[in-house]
Design goal:
heterodimer; A: mainly alpha; Arc Repressor Mutant, subunit A; B: 5 helices
Chain lengths: 215, 70
């Protein structure tokens, strides 16, 4: 991803964080405590945004979830401390671990007692019912071709994952947990499925500007 | 995002979820600084368009940093 090889200029505050966390003794303990407080704040921020998703939880349960997210984020930060290159502030880098943990836990908690929906047989009918009815009417030919392409060019696994996430609106993290895999692996499946669909539709002249070679 | 957009995903080349997570902090700081993150981190914006989970976390990090900056 890097387009230029540059030595990172680590700001003094970030350098102090890394030095304290990589050290030992009282300085490290104090840094760990401050870092946990920072991560807890970020986790609470994320769970606060998702209050609607977590309506069934008490304030105490939400607090417990925030602490779990901060604990797990702290472990993540420490495990990957060597990855910090100083290309952002250390606190920004650390925040993302807490946001990821809190968001993932919130999504999974919201789906905890729910069966995953099977993609509906008439999933294409959703196109007219997802807030874009004009688009559905305008793209009737594209939709028909898309239905055929989903049935014909995708593997059963690609079809199931793509439709469960896109048409069934199941969060990637939730599907990953149920399938014993990772968000990244599932997204790769979705990415590959989308490329197949795009290439197929482009070959049929239904996607302007698309490279058929991507097939 | 419409169903068609969700099924077809972004047209542009994109990074995966792991690369997105690795660069998200840098991307957001560049955004908030008014710089051009897409020039330095190509493929990340397309991934955010195609991946709802990463998009939500990108928005959260932006908002959290903005709140910090008052």
């Amino acid at each position: 991803m890097e387009v230029a090889v540059t030595l990172p200029v680590v700001d003094p505050e970030s350098r102090a964080w890394v030095a304290a966390l990589a050290g030992d003794g009282a300085d490290r303990e104090a840094a760990l405590e401050r870092l946990h407080a920072l991560l807890l704040r970020a986790a609470r921020f994320e769970l606060g945004r998702r209050r609607g998703q977590l309506a069934g939880m008490s304030a105490g349960e939400r607090q417990d979830l925030a602490v779990q997210a901060a604990d797990d984020a702290l472990m993540g930060v420490l495990a990957r401390l060597d990855d910090f290159r100083g290309l952002s502030r250390f606190t920004t880098w650390a925040y993302k671990f807490a946001l990821l943990e809190a968001a993932t836990k919130a999504r999974r908690t919201a789906w905890r007692d729910r069966e995953l929906p099977r993609p509906p047989e008439d999933w294409l009918a959703m196109a007219a019912d997802d807030g874009h009815p004009e688009a559905a009417a305008e793209h009737a030919e594209l939709l028909a071709a898309l239905r055929a392409a989903v049935a014909e060019v995708l593997t059963p696994h690609q079809r199931e994952v793509l439709l469960t996430v896109v048409a069934g609106r199941v969060p990637l993290d939730v599907l990953a947990e149920r399938r014993g895999t990772t968000r990244g692996a599932l997204y790769k499946t979705i990415h590959d499925a989308r490329r197949k669909l795009r290439a197929h539709l482009a070959g049929a002249g239904l996607l302007a500007g698309e490279e058929v070679s991507r097939r | 995002m419409s169903l068609i957009e969700g099924l077809l995903g972004p047209e542009e080349p994109e990074v995966g979820c792991d690369e997105c997570f690795a660069e998200l902090d840098r991307y957001v700081e560049l955004e908030l600084a008014g710089a051009d993150p897409d020039a330095q981190l190509p493929g990340l914006r397309a991934h955010l368009a195609g991946c709802l989970a990463c998009r939500e976390e990108h928005q959260s990090l932006r908002d959290l940093l903005s709140a910090d900056q008052g």
